[in-house]
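Subject: sequence -> structure tokens, single chain

Hey, anyone have a minute? Need the predicted structure for the following. Not urgent.
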Amino acid sequence: MTDSNKMDKLRALSGLQFRAAQAEMAAILRREEGLRQNLAQLTQSKQSQARAPRASDDAALVAGADIRWQQWVDQRRATINGELAQVLALKENCKHKLKIAFGRDQAVDGMRKQHAQQQQQRLRRKESYES
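Reply:
Had a minute. Here:
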């Protein structure tokens, strides 16, 4: 196997690792966005429920369902906030992996370019020497 083939394979591997890290980060970002949207929807529905005018004979008010619903919303928000905290921790870890993968990919690309330049210089020297 020639040095060029080794460099090409190393470049392909580092590119693959970088793209995998990007895909992992994209999945985490989608999950974070979904959780944030869920929180916003719950907050909005709770606020709209609180602003809605109620009659004293409202069945939900009489049965206490509105209070139980608000408790459920609060519990659900707490659960989502816990999930969001976990996702944010994963995001930080993934950022670190992504930085490392990007650095490796850039380093390998630089090595490949440098190797190609060295080969071209060798060929030019060889041609000038033989002529």
